[in-house]
Design brief:
6 copies of one chain form a homohexamer. In chain A, helix 3 (41-56) runs antiparallel to helix 4. Chain A is α/β, with parallel strands linked by helices and 320 residues long. A 7-stranded mixed β-sheet of chain A has the order 3-2-1-4-7-12-13, sandwiched between helices. Chain A has a 4-stranded mixed β-sheet with strand order 8-5-6-11, covered by helices on one side. A two-stranded parallel ribbon of chain A has the order 9-14. Chain A has 11 helices and 14 strands. Chain A is globular and about 65 Å long. The two termini of chain A are 22 Å apart. Chain A folds into 2 domains: 3-105 and 305-319, translation initiation factor eif-2b, domain 1 (Four Helix Bundle (Hemerythrin (Met), subunit A), Up-down Bundle), CATH 1.20.120; 106-300, 3-Layer(aba) Sandwich (Rossmann fold), CATH 3.40.50.10470. Chains in contact: A-B, A-D, A-E, A-F, B-C, B-D, B-E, C-D, C-E, C-F, D-F, E-F. At the A-B interface, helix 7, strand 3, helix 8, helix 9 and strand 10 of A face helix 7, strand 3, helix 8, helix 9 and strand 10 of B. Strand 10 of chain C pairs parallel with strand 3 of chain D, so a sheet runs across the interface.
């Protein structure tokens, strides 16, 4: 698929999901590099940077897109000849795609080790990575039980319990409001993430921070499952991120809403859980305390501290 | 209406709502007393206590029912002749019914004084007393704004925003999960109560304790509006109350639920907010800190400390 | 001094200070009672209530004034003949004046018992009762050391250190901002109160709540010395009291202030320390935890719970 | 200006202020290097290290001085020939001076992004960097309001409100003691720093830690504006830093102090705010959570962990 | 047994244990009253007060002794003739002895209701009342498991596990230091008390406050089983009670201790758990939150608030 | 001593103690390297890695063993010829042994600087490094006082007070349960560590976390003295470490235990103190806040983040 076609598909949301977006962009860059004629290093870099910019501009609020591009282009930056740059870029692109595809598998294995036999786990929303940890723990013979929330307004909890039911895992389904009520029975809160900030705050489905607060009140551990490309250098500090609100029509039937004159429907898709309420973040390169988030950002994603400062808006459509 | 008829109507839930149940029981006792022939004090007491027991047994988990019966019968206990007992009972029954009918009006006036001009108020569920405070504050010219939650699974929030919209009050509608996200904008959390325990814990719609916890985290005041007959001597300590769970069919469409084999639907109607997260309880006899709850119970409802110890189960159908 | 003259003197602030205002009002009522001709009980009551109202209206925001009037008039309420009423009133007025005069002496003795040999005490503002405790502890041979704050904007700390210096007590003088810095060296925070609310919150000189917060952070005990007439039934809940602000000219030289166009001088005289940061309140009738404040209000001052609900504004000129 | 003259001027406090001291030292080293005859690398290093030691000894408690010297000398350490060393040193000295001069400007731009339209900001003392953020936010069209404290004993708050008034920013002036009282109205606390320690604790004007504690109690964000040369490797741990006390004569008129025999004037210029009360530190190289302070110290200032252990005394005259 | 003989036996610790001391004193007073010749009320009172004083002086630090004496003598205070006084006193003495003997039985029934099927309970020291609750819960068919601590230095935990083992209850034995380590597995901490103070603080075996702190950290409920005669009016505030230290020879073999020259053996028998770490106190007259402790003291034991202020020393030998 | 002999001695616990085990392994590797014939790099590596594996397998749960092996082998990894590898390995082995031997000496000097004149220090268990800090502070002339706990079940506190007594330091000996009771008198808690995890949690003798919690409650600093080889990359998160329990026979005399049928003796040797309760970790390369633990692990011990994820069991016999 051509570079411009991929850019178009990402922009028009025909390609969705943090992982798929990232891989599509890298594949498009790889194909594009193959089409480029031999040239000196400067020309090659210029062409590749131009292509990267084209892709990066398609979805300015996606977290995984700049991470992926940055990661693969860094191979070019360090190369000393055009030939080296091409081959280094190719190798790095292959690595990225492969490890991205395997990320959830790796997370599942690492995360399952942090689940003990007999644990009662609370999960919120429908995170592929979090569920993979739970299913892997179940598969390895641990007897576990899950509480899953409804996840208003889009009811993703129904997908979650379907998945858990299919896997034969004992599950309880509760409204979002009941999380604190049941917290005393919970041994572990395990959720995914839409983004992890430099200081280890976790941007995730609205309601996550409330659950993490209740877990913290009860000294229950909170574990987050997140691929490294979810780590967002530009989201400096949790509380200071700007959370985009979705349309309100998910909250009320339109015919009901139409009768109200003084009521605004407020529909933020995410909230921010501060790092002091998070005990562990499981990534495909290892499990870390949230305070080490910036290590992932610097050493695995390649960002420098002076790039952390840009304002950041997070939008739901770019994460899912 | 005859005593047995009223007892039957309460048992069969044809009479519902904490206030209505209480008043119906007192009215039935009053009518019953009028039918009794002249007798000595002992006989009169015996007959009235028998009637009270009949009524009290109809709904063992209602909070207002024993409060009302206890309150009016105490007039008989202190009387020294049958004649005195009759007239004291009549006076007390009248007082109870009148003050019960006026309770919300009184609460609204007292509660509105604790709302300041410019306040942004978060409310949860659909409490007549809490909304009366808000509407009274608005009526008295204070410019206020309200955040109202959806209140899953029965969506009582829709009734709340309808009421606020009709009153011309600027309102925001959010999912239950978004309470902590918006807490920094909130000046006051104002909710009702299904029961208040001896130590000032508040039993209210599921989700209330989560909101109060988030308010506490942000040093936002939590005010509870509750008629005195909501104060429950037998609910010793918040955390130790047994909360009855409702049928799960409110949580999922039955055709969906039918396909699940490993999933239990858990549907507690209430949770318990500990007194350290409550700043003020507004009753019709004055506003008190939660630590004075037992004063209401002892001095306004007439219970003694050695009656506080009975186990208590709270059930939704008896409160609404 | 005639009733109207005393009323005038209180209104015009020729009589100042919580204790002096209270005693002057009681003395005026006592003299007024002596001038009344013999009459029936109803007439006597009417006359005395009228006089009380006249006095009470002079300073609606004083705490001690309604407490004193209420206390002495309660003798009349319970009397059954005019003669009884007169003599009961006289006795109660005498009791009030005597115990009010001795209150600080009693507080000093009780409070000094809570100071241990070797204690380092932090005090804020210039409370006669708090200093009396410190001086009594020193007099009884305990080796103590005091940290006293400056108390901006009116520098009452200078009066405090003068008093402590005269008493020969080792004292350190610090700016208000340094309280937390030195808190690790402090064994006891000991302050006075301008008012104590029903739930045990303490209204005192601006800065007190900040010091109590820092004490709480360091698990240092906070003891408040307060005469019973400082307990204010109408101040329901600490955080909800309205604190009157003084003129800003205490904050800046007028010639400096005159050059500023966008600056407002904000000068609240008091703040509110929540009861969870107060360990003990020493009164002349005994030392109590803040949760028992309403016992003082009900049993020593004679207020009922349904009188607690009135809004309350606290103003500095009425306290000092 | 000659090396010895600069050393003398720094020692005698003719050169003051963290930034100016740092730049003067670097300029003196640069001039000195220019005067040195051609030599081998070892000789050049020895001469430069000698000069650095001379300068470093002038003010052992300054934070910026060793940071600046260390930063520029590291160029020499890595060079392999004398010629390389000279030119690398020159380049690095130029970089340091330029970025130091621009630091406040950079901080203002980064910091202003963390101020939202409508924010009410509390600031303490008179920090050039913190005020630059506020003024930049105002300049960019955000409607903001400021609370500024008096800052006893030297009243630097007057300079602050003069600056804000000149900038046309709506400002409130309060005594230091009133910070907690107004905290509920504050959206953001924004202060400067005299030093930032390895673990992210902030040494700043006395009173800062008290304000940060009150902000923490109310879940209000605390942002610190600090140039990188304020980061102090030798101040391992906030609470364990030794804070030098100033003369007490700032606290009381001498004629008053002279009359006191038992009173000591205690005048610490700074206090230490622990990192858990700080949300963000804005530097000229980016905004970081306090937990990343050591990254600044290691990667921007060039210190190693085994140099962090030296005891450290902070003195006011070296910071201002 | 004669009055003086009983006084002697109590003083010489031939009579031990809070309950036994209290009952012995009341019995001695009852016998003594029977020996007194008919007289007027004043004479009878004088004689009885003299006898009470004799008994009270035997063990000034016992909690139950003054409670018992106070309780039975209050019958005399209210009587209007000598005959009334005698009979009222007799009745009250009988009541006291009977209810004291039944107290543990009553507590067991009330306390067992607060234990749920499946609960894991941590207990510390060897409290008859706490163990009675556990055994009653087990007897009533609830499946429970207990963690019992060693209780250094006197190893009372061994008696506890012997009792639990005999009752057939599944028990774990741990060192005192391991309480926090196992707290996540614990559903309920259940301990006795040597004294309960006016504000609800609990004086109990050294180590209790540490366990309660760890329970509070993990949101685990703490329940205290205490007879009403353990409530101590003179122990105003937990933290301010003076705890007597026992001889150090329980801590080390004397031959070891003899070789140490710089080591002091510190052996406090009790510590004080603040009321905010206690959820419920189970007494024989009902279960109360700690904030209602003074109700027990005033209404069941008959003390007035102005008697609360005396200093109080608690000594182990008087409690056991 | 031959490689196999050393491996045998470590396995059979003839060599004990974290430091001694580490040094013995390094010495065995060094001797083994000397016996190897000249070869190419690949062969040399293979032989050395084989030897390392042999040693590493002897005690899979020791913390210092893999740290030491890893550290010295990293010299081989980076070498480019066999000759380089040999000499680099030799140098690194020498460095390790020397710095390991000096580690306690270095820690003592650094740690003593964090003890102030007049400090009262609480220590738990018998840590050579912690005691060295205390003794060094005493030796340097600071007047200090120590509280030492008994340390059940093995009474290591007796060794501690013997050491302190011999050093002439004023010491108090208390049961483990009394730590919170005395915490208000303590200025500093100073303990050793058996392991430090990646996120700065401290694994140490059972009871340490309880003391640190009580210190945190009272704002008392907690300092941990730990050699760098105690830092354990595989212990990701404190709370999630698996703590091995020892035999229960240390808890009770066997003849007593034999009579119990329902009692299990639970004897965990360690617990985990979360990093938020630790203020400073003193190592031989400097003092760090716990958040920098992973810096030690990465930069001084040479582990990568993706090696942090392995599960980890800590066993007492390997630490002592």
């Amino acid at each position: 698929m051509s570079l411009t076609q991929t850019a178009e598909d990402i922009r028009e949301m025909r390609i969705r999901g943090a992982g798929r977006i990232a891989r599509a962009a890298v594949e498009a860059l790889r194909e594009y590099a193959d089409t480029l004629p031999d040239s000196d290093l400067a020309t090659f870099r210029e062409q590749m940077y131009g292509a990267a910019e084209l892709l990066g501009d398609t979805r300015p609020t996606a977290v995984s897109l700049p991470n992926a591009i940055r990661y693969v282009l860094s191979a070019i930056e360090r190369a000393e000849t055009a030939t080296d740059a091409r081959s280094a870029f190719h190798a790095r692109a292959d690595t990225f795609i492969r490890s991205s595809l395997h990320a959830v598998r790796e997370i599942a294995e690492i995360g399952a080790r942090h689940i003990s036999d007999g644990d009662v786990i609370l999960t919120h929303c429908n995170s592929e990575a979090a569920l993979a940890c739970i299913i892997e723990a179940h598969r390895s013979g641990k007897e576990i039980e899950v509480f899953a929330t409804e996840v208003r307004p889009r009811n993703q909890g129904r997908i979650t319990i379907r998945t858990l039911d299919d896997a034969g895992i004992k599950t309880n389904f509760i409204v979002d409001s009941a999380a604190r009520h049941f917290m005393k029975e919970i041994d572990l809160v395990l959720v995914g993430a839409d983004a992890v900030t430099v200081n280890g705050a976790v941007v995730n489905k609205i309601g996550t921070s409330q659950i993490a607060l209740a877990a913290h009140e009860a000294r229950t551990n909170v574990v987050v499952a997140a691929e490294t490309y979810k780590f967002a250098p530009r989201t400096i500090l949790g509380e200071l991120i700007q959370i985009e609100e979705r349309e309100g029509d998910e909250l009320l039937p339109p015919e009901f809403a139409a009768t109200l004159r003084n009521v605004t429907l407020r529909n933020p898709a995410f909230d921010v859980t501060p790092p002091e309420y998070v005990d562990l973040i499981v990534t495909e390169v290892g499990a870390i305390p949230p305070q080490l988030a910036y290590i992932i950002i610097r050493e695995y994603l390649g960002w420098e501290i002076d790039e952390f400062q840009k304002p950041f808006v997070i939008s739901e459509q770019d994460q899912e």
